[in-house]
Amino acid sequence: MKKIIVPIDFSEYSEYALKVAAKLAKKNNSELLALHMLEMSDIMLTGAGEQPQKVIYFLKLAEQRFEDFLKKEYLEGLTITPIVKHFKVFSEVNEIAKKYEADLIVMGSHGASGAKEFFVGSNTERVVRNAEIPVLVVKNDIAKINFDIIAFACGFGEDSIEAYLKASSVFNRMNAKMYLVHVNLPNDRFQSSDEIEIDAVNFFTKADGNLDKMSDVHYISDYTVEDGILNAANKLGADLIVVPTHGRKGLAHFFQGSVGEDVANHAALPVMTFKI
């Protein structure tokens, strides 16, 4: 993990993300790319007269505020590259990540409860859907970043293999233990133990070419996928929940509707997405 990018909007949640990114950067000897998206209208950017001077003025103000924001003790000793871009188009974060060859995006979010939504229409949702690299979403000021136990939500579909292999590569380098969590649902989606095991065997055979990871599968029965993932993560003592995504095509395999959003909404733990 050589480069970590963090979008900054000066909120307390983006500072949560910055703190987590700083801790990961120190652990992995990574460069930190701090990104601020400065929102400006088309008129200001293309207008005549005094508009260009106003653009320059606001850019300078943003750069100064950004510079002051990055004067944190927890950032001392890190290699930090500040990046200021005009337009608040969060789908462009992926383009910036590709340009700078970043390995991870870390974003802060306030989450939601009840009828409020976390992903839909949010900047985090736009980044997750467009990002080709993993996105780590944090909602709290996390004291210690020890991703020792990982709960990887998996339905054992072939479309999850790529995300599984990417996650395995990342967490193996971190010496973390990754469990694959499979949620068995009632009614028409119920599977017998033998059926689940056959799916798991086929999955690992295609993904790893062996069945060494069969012992790392954690089965749980619940009424909803999101409840099953959260309960399994709690039982495993997980430090992180991982969800594979299809990006713009929606969430992978059994993640229908708002399951992925609900997991990110209600999980006290950080959530990381890997694009399929």
Present the secondary structure layout.
Elements: E1 3-8, H1 12-28, E2 31-38, H2 42-46, H3 51-69, E3 80-86, H4 93-99, E4 104-108, H5 123-130, E5 135-138, E6 149-153, H6 161-173, E7 177-184, H7 193-207, E8 217-221, H8 225-236, E9 240-245, H9 259-266, E10 271-275
Parallel strand pairs: 1-2, 1-4, 2-3, 4-5, 6-7, 6-9, 7-8, 9-10
Antiparallel strand pairs: 5-10
Helix pairs in contact: 8-9
Protein name: Nucleotide-binding universal stress UspA family protein
Domain UspA: 1-139, 148-274
Family: Belongs to the universal stress protein A family.
Explain what this protein looks like in three dimensions.
Pfam families: Usp. Belongs to the universal stress protein A family. Residues 1-139, 148-274 form the UspA domain. This is Nucleotide-binding universal stress UspA family protein. By secondary structure, the chain is an alpha/beta fold. It has 2 domains: 1-141, Rossmann fold, CATH 3.40.50; 146-276, HUPs (Rossmann fold), CATH 3.40.50. It is 38% helix and 21% strand. The protein contains 9 helices and 10 strands. The protein has a 10-stranded mixed beta sheet, sandwiched between helices. Helix 7 (193-207) links the parallel strand 7 (177-184) and strand 8. Helix 8 (225-236) packs parallel to helix 9. It is elongated, with a radius of gyration of 20 Å. The model is unreliable at 113-121 and 248-258 (pLDDT under 50).
